Amino acid sequence: MLKKMLRKIPFFLLCRITQLRLQRKWRDIRQNRQSPKLVFAAERQEETYPFRCKKHQSLLRRKLGNSNPQLQENKIVNLALCIPKLDGLVIHPNETFSFWRQIGKPTRRKGFIDGLLLSHGEVRSGVGGGLCQLANLLYWLVLHTPLQVTERHHHSFDPFPDDRRTLPFGSGASVYYNYVDLRFYNPCEQSFQIKVWMTDKHLKGSIQSDQHLPYSYHIEERHHQFIQQDEKWFRQNEIWRRKIDKQSGQCMDIKKVLSNFSEVKYIPYEKTHTV
User: Fold this and answer.
1) Which of 267, 271, 256, 186 is nearest to 222 (CA)?
2) What does the pLDDT look like over 1-34, one tens digit per residue?
3) What does the alpha-carbon distance between residue 272 and residue 264 come to, in Å, rounded to a whole number?
4) Helices assigned H by DSSP within the chain
5) pLDDT digits (tens, 9 = 90+) for 27-62
6) Each residue of 254-263: b (16+ CB within 10 Å) or e?
7) Distances, alpha carbon 125 to alpha carbons 5, 39, 74, 86, in Å
8) Are 106 and 52 a contacting pair, CB within 8 Å?
C-alpha cells in the first residue's frame, strides 16, 4: 500500500504544478482587465542607454559541494539560450518586468538541457536548470535602482558552503516556471534597460537608464550568523539598502530589504550560535 502511494506522489506533484501554472496565467489575464492594466515590458533596443545604474558579474563555474560539474557546463548552455531574450530589454514607465514572460517555458525542444535545480528541499537536475543564476544577477542589479520589486522568491534552504561568494547570503532570487517568478515595476518617469552577456568565465549584466539618476543605492549585510537548533543548522541575516545623494554624498534613506532564515544542508565552518 505504501509503495503504491509513493509511486503516485510524482503524479500528484505534477498535478499541483499544473494547477499553479494555470492559476498564474489566469491571474495575469484578470489583472490585465483591471485598471490600471498589468503591462509587461516587451521592447528591446540594441543601442545601450547612456547612464549606468549598476554593473555586476558572477562566476559561471564554482565548487558546489559534491554536485556533478557537468551540470554547470549544461547551465552555461541554458544561460546562453536566455541571454538574447533579455539583452536590451527596456522597462518603460508603468511597465512590469517578468522573468518568465521573457524567457518562456524551458523545454528540450527549445534546446534546454539538464542543469542544477534546487526544488522541494533537495538538489537535483532538471531541464533548464541553472537559470537562478540569471535571476540572482537581475535581482541584485534591481536593488541598486528605484525599480520596485513586486515578486521575488528565495530558496528555502542553503545547499552548499560558500565558494568565492561576493554577494551577501540570501540576496538572490529563485525562479521556477511560471508561478515562481521574478517581477519588478517601473514607477519612474524614465526608462530602464537590461544588458546581459557572457564571457568564458562570467555571467555579466548591467541596468542602464535613459536619464541621469540623482541617487545611488548601497547594499549591506547585517547580523549574519549560523544557528544550531537541535540537530539542524540554520543561517540568517538581514539585507539593508541605503539611498545616497550623488551630489552631497548624504544618506537620504535607509531601510531593511530582506530578512533571511534558511536551513543549511552542510555543517558550517563558521559556527556561531546554538539554541
Assistant:
1) 256
2) 434 443 456 777 888 889 999 999 999 998 888 8
3) 14
4) 2-33, 70-86, 99-103, 132-142
5) 999 888 887 889 999 999 999 999 999 999 999 998
6) eeeebebebe
7) 24, 34, 10, 24
8) no
Cell matching residue 33: 482587465
CA distance 221 to 171: 9
Residues listed for the chain: 275
Predicted TM-score of the model (pTM):
0.91
Q: What is the DSSP letter of 108?
A: G
What lies within 8 Å, CB to CB, of 204 at 6+ separation is: 55, 56, 57, 196, 197, 198
**What b/e string do you get for 144-171 counting C-beta neighbours within 10 Å, with b at 16 or more?**
bbbbebeebbebeebbbbeeeeebbbbb
Cell matching residue 74: 549544461
pLDDT above 90 for 219: yes
Q: Find residue 241's DSSP bridge partners.
A: 219, 255
H/E run at residue 90? strand 90-91
- Cα dihedral sign for 183, 184, 185, 186? negative
Residue position matching grid coordinates 490585465: 32
Cα torsion 235, 100, 204, 144 to 10°: value is -60
**In 3D, which of 56, 80, 170 has the Cα closest to residue 131?**
80
Nearest CA to 220 among 247, 257, 252, 253? 257
- For cell 528591446, what's the residue? 44
